[in-house]
Amino acid sequence: MADWDEIIDCEGLLCPLPVLRARKRLLSLSPGTVLCVRATDAMAGIDLPHFCTEAGHAYLGTQTDGPVTLHLIRRR
Length: 76
What we know:
The protein is built from 2 helices and 4 strands. By secondary structure, the chain is α+β, with helices and mostly antiparallel strands.
């Protein structure tokens, strides 16, 4: 079973697109929902936690799936 409720694919997208897509998707989710952002851009590992801190969401960490990093975010 997956550790998330929703997933968005940001593979191949460069900064700031993973953050912008995550922000847009999070706006449509209920509080407590966990979003998985699939990203290949290494900057997402810096940008997504920073975004979560600024927006009040919980950055739950990462998992790896080959060359893809899965960033887990719980909506506030």
